[in-house]
# Entry
Amino acid sequence: MTGTAIRITALTSLLLLVGCATVPREAGFGDVEKTVAERTGQRVHWNQGSPADEAVAAQVRALLGKELTVDEAVQVALLNNRELQAVYEDLSIAQADLVAAGLLRNPVFDAEIRFTETEGHVGAELALVQDFIDILYIPLRKRLATAAFESAKLRVAGAVLDLSGEVRAAFYELQSAQQTLEMRRQVMTATEASYDLAKRLRAAGNNTELDLFNERALHEQAKVDVRRAEVQVLRGRERLNALMGLWGERANWSIATRLPELPAEAEEVAAEGVERQAIERSLDLGAAQRELEEAAAALGIARPFGWLPDAEIGASAEREPDGEWAIGPAFSLPIPLFNQGQPAVAAAQAELRRARERYAAQAVGIRAQARALHATLLAARDQAEYYAKVVLPLRQRIVDQTQLQYNAMQVGAFQLLVAKQQQIDAANDYIRALRDYWLARTQLDLLLSGRTTSFSELSSTDTEETSSPAAGGGRGGH
# Structure
């Protein structure tokens, strides 16, 4: 019995040594760091209770202590967003699955004890078995898990790029709201001065009561518009706070109050090579490629072993009632009478075909998105330039000429109010056009950095509605 026990113990120890493994903590995060740095120039950090965590926190505090640029806002979000920290744990899960794929299944120990009725002897049967087919599965299973792990790294890197794009869009939205608020406050100041002048003219008998009411209506509307713009700024700040993971005193950051001007035409993304770059750098297409590899690996498992799902091999020891032990090999082999693996192979083949078609469809979609976003960017630029070079100067000239005619008593106050309102609307439309350009630029840059966008319309703040001046007042003079 001693020799038998030693042999069984040795077999058990060997199986345990083969199967033991540890899960690395870094879980491929270095590859994510490299991908993000190459595509965005930004740094990412995984909080794991290391001394580097405090250095990262100090960097965030330093960035928040000055006026943030859009790149700095993105950097704060990538270092401080807690949802992104949660996404990094997907790497640990995928790494654990990869380690598990290289392990044998735990062996199964069976024991039976029998007592004789007459002499009180004890009989026993012991068996230690291991899934035999599982040993052959390991290389294919590791290949499948490796593809899944690589896909997880691409998904995590994609989440980082998504956050980067969200922060940039929110940053430009906030600047647009702030610029709109600045314009609305200037309008309110101007209408207040006009209203005060109209009151003095009315007191002197130099204008009608209707002129006075029209001036007041324009001023009251300006105050409403200022309040609406203040709410938009507040909402934009809180959206950016959420993306950057900020609250309390750290939410008291500042950014430039106006959108950047349009870049020089030479700095625009050229149409040539847009599709190629989008395809070559697409993380989503890379993830689809990994899905293809996973489907191929699954088919590689199903074909040779689909008909033989379970087979066990091991050692068995039996103690007879007289005290003698019998030792020998043990195995279990299913007989494939009814299921010979055809369903498993057919399903794996269908999964592979589906992965191929999805890969091709995604490539077509990325090419179309690249063309559409580039066209959208150029159209947004043209519109913003047209407002800046044509519409706004024209509206200013109309107001100036109307003011001269009003002073000469050739037009009434209503015509002057209409001209001023149209100038205000044109200024507001220009800010929106400039914002739409930077949002389109953000989406195209995101696509060219490797992240697929959608054909949905560019996100925008709630459309602001401005009331027309109160009707009334004909062509009469003062």
